[in-house]
Design goal:
By secondary structure, the protein is an alpha/beta fold. The chain is 22% helix and 27% strand. The strands form 6 sheets. Strands 1, 4, 5, 6, 8, 9, 10, 11 and 12 form a 9-stranded mixed sheet that branches. Strands 17, 18, 20, 21, 23, 25, 27, 28 and 29 form a 9-stranded mixed sheet that branches. A 5-stranded parallel sheet has the order 14-19-22-24-26, with no helix packed on it.
């Protein structure tokens, strides 16, 4: 049966599928990814990191979405099943969770990012899409993919790559695009020591965001070609993209052209929260009076699974035992009982007991902080039971012995670390 062509005015997103690569561990987040993949790490009080890529797709008008998972995927899959099960096939929508399942060979998991798409081509083809938007599932940003799709079609590109403009010598950890005056990519360099500058702006470089747009037919041909190459590592950044740059037409799409900003956001916000320091900083930044990332933007909501919880509660009002919070985000189900909270972010169901003082803290769901604790510059993993009187953030030497302390002085606290203290 021939699919009826959409009118010329129809958004391209209606003919596109978003495919989110969410299999990575994110080892630089240390113990935060011991039990969950990086895309499943909590962010912003009630979301997971992957919710930003998924919400961008949904808000852009894309209604067919696939998510490839691999490393310790249970937490991620459970979140996706609970929070993203509202897309309906009877409305020509789909949401597929695609764990590595040895579908090609009983000895082969996903060998690389390209292989994570190749192994599921038969499933993807059931969606009969014209365009594929490949997304990394581990960054914080708001972006309208429709604008990137439009550029891809207008410039008749084989691949369009989302790019950030970054100071040239800060681009050494990225894949960097060397472009001409029309932003056509003439070379792709992975983590160069001397990144190429942008024409007309040599102090800046174009770094890959890990976002790619292809026509589905072209992508399928490229994936099959790559799968038959014995020398390939089956990776978009290492294999597919360099081959297209050399033999086809690759075009850079600048994030500033399609980033979504509310009236309160001044910058084109994008963060890789891939280290404990970066993760802590991005969450704490949300406590600013006017944060760089506006989570209150109703025109571009961040969709997620929302637990049913009672409102946050603050109790006791005597000197030295006053439940209060200053410049903080406090999620549903939290109880601040005679404790003080400053420049901190509490996820769902956190309890802070009397006489405790918490400052510059990112506290994941269902943590219990016992009485008289003093915690400063910390990230506390889900469900940790902080013992009575624990002091963190005042003695760097002691903190370094007991917890995971970063070079910037942020302490990551997990339950096994607490158990060793009380053993």
């Amino acid at each position: 049966m021939t699919r009826q062509a959409l009118p010329m005015s129809a958004p391209l997103a209606r003919s596109a599928m978003a495919y989110v690569l969410a299999g990575g561990r994110g080892s630089r987040l240390m113990e935060l990814t011991d039990r969950r993949a990086k895309p499943a790490v909590y962010f912003g009080g009630k979301s997971r990191i992957i919710d930003f890529a998924l919400s961008n797709a949904l808000n852009s008008g894309i209604r067919r979405i696939g998510v490839a998972t691999q490393y310790k995927a249970h937490s991620l899959i459970r979140h996706l099943q609970r929070g993203w099960n509202f897309l309906r096939p009877e409305r020509n929508e789909s949401f597929d969770i695609l764990p590595a399942s040895q579908r090609i060979s009983e000895h082969q998991w996903y060998a690389g990012t390209a292989d994570a798409v190749y192994q599921n081509l038969d499933i993807i083809e059931t969606n009969t899409v014209e365009y594929m938007v490949i997304l990394a599932g581990d960054h914080i940003y708001k972006m309208d993919y429709e604008l990137m799709l439009q550029q891809h079609v207008d410039q008749k590109a084989d691949v369009t790559i989302g790019c950030l403009e970054v100071p040239r010598m800060e681009a050494t950890g990225f894949g960097v695009m060397h472009v001409d005056e029309k932003d056509q990519i003439i070379a792709f360099v992975e983590k160069p020591k001397d990144p190429p500058g942008i024409p007309g702006n040599p102090d800046m470089a174009l770094a890959s965001m890990g976002i790619y747009v292809f026509s589905m037919k072209f992508l399928e041909q490229e994936l099959i070609r790559d799968a038959n190459d014995p020398n390939s590592s089956r990776d978009f950044g290492k294999d597919i993209i360099p081959h297209i740059v050399k033999h086809g037409k690759a075009v850079a799409h600048r994030f500033t052209k399609s980033c979504v900003r509310s009236s309160h956001e001044n910058e084109a916000y994008w963060r890789d929260v891939g280290t404990v320091d970066a993760y802590w900083e991005a969450n704490i930044d949300l406590t600013d009076v006017v944060p760089a990332l506006d989570l209150y933007d109703q025109d571009w909501p961040i969709w997620t699974f929302s637990e049913l919880t009672p409102p946050a509660k603050f109790v006791h009002d005597t000197d030295g035992r006053r439940g209060q919070a200053v410049s903080s985000l406090v999620s549903g189900g939290c109880l601040v009982s005679g404790a003080s909270l400053r420049h901190s972010l509490l996820f769902t169901g956190v309890r802070i007991n009397s006489y405790s003082e918490v400052e510059n803290a990112v506290v994941l769901p269902y943590v219990n902080i016992a009485r008289s604790a003093r915690l400063k510059n910390v990230v506390i993993d889900r469900g940790v039971q902080i013992p009575e009187g624990l002091v963190v953030g005042e003695d760097p030497v002691l903190d370094d012995r007991r917890f995971r302390r970063t070079d910037k002085g942020i302490c990551l606290i997990t339950q096994p670390m607490i158990d060793r203290l009380t053993a």
